[in-house]
Fold these 3 entries.
Entry 1:
Amino acid sequence: MNKINKMLENKLANLKLKYFLENYQAAAQLAAEAQMPYLEFLSELVDGEAAERNERAIE
């Protein structure tokens, strides 16, 4: 793991962004392959984080 990834993962963990932490690498790979615009990539991660938090709140 490179330094940037480690720093990002520490920040995501500190912010308690579990979905981001678990999914950003795979999402980034898919976004790059699909030439997805950055804001669309980011929006998908935010949507996933929000959905997971809503699910946990219901439980």
Note: The chain has one domain: 3-58.
Entry 2:
Amino acid sequence: MNGRGAAADPWKAMSHTVMPTGGGRGVELLLAHCDALTRLEGTRKPAIERLERRVGRDLAHLLVSALAARTPRCVDLAA
């Protein structure tokens, strides 16, 4: 080698900032949305509980088991 290496970053791209630094709300808004989503997760009841509350325990379990079955099955709905 002759001691002179080629510039690894001739366009100075590595000196650019990743996040906007002047007056933008993008980062703060993104963090606020992420925070809101994580708070929502903890307060929402599981789907089966919400379905049970709407249609009753027996019907909720019947619907879920019919939808989750690998092979379709007939269910006797006669009361």
Note: The radius of gyration is 28 Å.
Entry 3:
Amino acid sequence: MSYSIDFRKRAIDFVIEEKNSMRSASKIFDIQYNTMKEWVKRFKETGEFSPKPILGKQPTKINLATLV
């Protein structure tokens, strides 16, 4: 499941700025504890709220001529 950047920011701020525990944040925001832990870890390491990019094969471009 993908969460919005705003939702992630509110959850991370709840932990870091308001000095609440990750466990209480995960219960309040109704997300898994490990998800909360990964978000906080990523934010502390990179300063990013956005999800990690998905690695792997790049999507192929659709040839518009074949769609007609």
Note: The CA atoms of residues 62 and 68 lie 12 Å apart.
